[in-house]
Amino acid sequence: MLRSMTGHGEAKAQGEGFEMDIEVRSVNNRFLRIVTKIADEIAFLQTELEEEIRKRVSRGTVFLTVRLASDRMSEFYEVNEELVRKYFTKLQSLAHELHTGEQILLKDLLLLPGSILAKEDVLAEKEVVLKTALRGLGEALDQLNAMRDHEGAIIHREFRERWQLLNGMLEKIKALAPQSIVEYQQRLEERVGQLLTNHEISLSPEDIIKEVALLAERSDISEEITRMRSHLEQFQQCLDSGGAVGRKLEFILQEMFREANTKASKSIHSGINRILVDFKTELDRLKEQVQNVE
Which of 143 and 195 is assigned the larger pLDDT? Predict the structure, then answer.
């Protein structure tokens, strides 16, 4: 079964004295890209969390957000009092020297580099925090992939329907291909006959047959039909195999479009050309939709 690249999931993970809100969402991307926004206090978990996402997602842009709430948040930080005093003394001296008359506020001093220090080991051991985070991330990814699978099932049904349409069109083209040469020969004989009668000139049937044979060779699309049949079979096999087949499907559709264009350039049958217009329209729809497949 196919899997979409679009989804969303979220979960809460409770630890001793803290709680994490974890959210994952994904959108289309040709490759796998992970964008994280993790609370500073647990930023050390980033590598492990990204690795867990890579195990569960093959393609798309995944946005991971982890928020932290703790009843000990005030313990995470402390003021570097010595440095703040130095900042204040230096700035006060500079303001006096420059005669600015500006008031130096504590809230501004706390924004200066090094004024606030993050404490280590306020939470439990990293292994304990990581275990809690991975549990929540697992639940969020379960929701994400459930949504991606649901949408993928809808896309899969649509692809099946379009495959049936393309398959039927190809059978019609295959049936019309030999007929196109016969019809061309008949039209050629009629036109040549009228022209020769008007000018009292004769032309042997062999000459007409040679002309028809040359055109038949130039307009033969049997090889393109065979290759298109092969591409349709490969497309069906990808649908049956499931997994991360989006990029492979993109390549197959690209080849199918190329074969359709070749047939259109060689065909001399108006009926075949009309079918090919519809054929390429369906391919365009598939090419647009396959951008959503993992």
Answer: 143
